[in-house]
């Protein structure tokens, strides 16, 4: 039986690569588009080693309309798109807001234009819990009001959600969308053939943790310990990246089945909040590695605490996570040990 083709923008990236694996294992035919501006060729090799098959990969910027049209024309019969491709560092977005708006919003506009031209109806969008800003109450549900974002990165996700919603509801539109609001993905594939591979200095906590444990970094800096949380450090909802990837497969299938509304929003997290210090201690417990860490100044754009209410995803998508924090951290450490120093 012929596999249903799904385009995966940013498919060589951290979450995208894991989604490609889960899509293929669920019977789909993923097609990758990536410009490798924040990913490496080795992730494609890792994907193909896990799956023991070749996966089509087009090296283009999905903000380039002519290049994207050429991919749609060459591949033909695409039934949907998962749109990961975006710049994603909160701190960097504060320093380089224009680059974030040009890339994140611009690429979505191009993608939607080409999807409509080629009659590709289904879009799963990689959104973020940053759209909730600093919430008034925790945990956040999908009905929690979105607020002015704490960073340009968060604002690009909010703008993109609004654009998709407007396009879906336009008269005569054939596009349907699912907006997945991620919390904090961590960990790596159990094979340790793909994982989080930041270019340069990591912007996320877990690669900094694993690189410090591996001796690549002298110390881990925890940004702020005077937040209004039990131990003063930020609280986040940490979801294993493989669990997160599986949510995308469920979302794609839901769109193909035509169930649900024309545009839907789901939180994708564990429903649990852990502080940075709790993560550090959990990593030490899971791996037996002691971490050298210091407390630094709080970063611009960081939200004190946020974690998900996952009731809607469980009840409507049938999705729930299966991995513990410790299992996710152990997989991240296993991945780190496979990398060249």
Write the layout of secondary structure elements.
Layout: E1 4-9, H1 14-25, E2 28-33, H2 42-51, E3 57-58, H3 65-75, E4 78-83, H4 90-95, H5 97-118, E5 122-128, H6 152-169, E6 176-182, E7 184-186, H7 205-213, E8 220-223, E9 235-236, E10 238-240, H8 241-257, E11 263-268, E12 274-275, H9 276-287, E13 293-296, H10 311-317, H11 325-338
Parallel strand pairs: 1-2, 1-4, 2-3, 4-5, 5-6, 6-11, 7-10, 8-13
Antiparallel strand pairs: 9-12
Helix pairs in contact: 1-2, 1-8, 3-5, 5-6, 7-11, 9-11
Enzyme class: isomerase
Catalytic activity: UDP-alpha-D-glucose = UDP-alpha-D-galactose
Cofactor: NAD(+)
Summarize the structure.
The chain has 11 helices and 13 strands. With 341 residues, it is an alpha/beta fold. The strands form 4 sheets. The chain has a 7-stranded parallel beta sheet with strand order 3-2-1-4-5-6-11, sandwiched between helices. A two-stranded parallel sheet has the order 7-10.
């Amino acid at each position: 039986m012929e596999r249903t083709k799904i385009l995966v923008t940013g498919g060589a990236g951290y979450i995208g690569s894991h989604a490609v694996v889960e899509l293929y294992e669920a019977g789909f035919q993923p097609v990758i588009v990536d410009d490798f501006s924040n990913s490496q060729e080795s992730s494609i090799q890792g994907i193909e080693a896990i799956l023991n098959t070749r996966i089509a990969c087009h090296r283009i910027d999905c903000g380039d309309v002519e290049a994207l049209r050429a991919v749609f024309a060459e591949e033909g019969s695409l039934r949907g798109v998962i749109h990961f491709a975006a710049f994603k560092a909160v701190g960097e977005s504060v320093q380089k807001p224009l680059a974030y708006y040009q890339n994140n919003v611009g690429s979505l506009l191009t993608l939607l234009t080409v999807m409509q031209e080629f009659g590709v109806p289904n879009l799963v969008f990689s959104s973020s819990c940053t759209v909730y800003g600093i919430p008034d109450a925790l945990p956040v549900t999908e009905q929690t009001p979105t607020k002015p974002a704490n960073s340009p990165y968060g604002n690009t996700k909010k703008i993109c959600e609004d654009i998709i919603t407007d396009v879906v509801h336009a008269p005569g539109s054939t596009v349907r969308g699912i907006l997945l609001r991620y919390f904090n993905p961590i960990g790596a594939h159990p094979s340790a053939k793909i994982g989080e591979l930041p270019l340069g200095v990591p912007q996320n906590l877990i690669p900094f943790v694993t690189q410090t444990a591996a001796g690549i970094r002298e110390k881990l800096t925890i940004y702020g310990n005077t937040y209004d949380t039990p131990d003063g450090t930020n609280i986040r909802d940490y979801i294993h990246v493989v669990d997160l990837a599986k949510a995308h497969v469920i979302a794609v299938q839901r769109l193909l089945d035509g169930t649900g509304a024309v545009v839907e929003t789901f939180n994708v997290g564990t429903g649990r909040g852990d502080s940075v210090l709790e993560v550090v201690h959990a990593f030490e417990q899971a791996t037996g590695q002691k971490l050298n860490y210091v407390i630094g100044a709080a970063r611009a754009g960081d939200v004190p605490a946020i974690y998900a209410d996952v009731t809607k995803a469980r009840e409507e998508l049938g999705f729930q996570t299966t991995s513990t924090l410790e299992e996710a951290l152990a997989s991240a450490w296993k991945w780190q040990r496979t990398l060249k120093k």
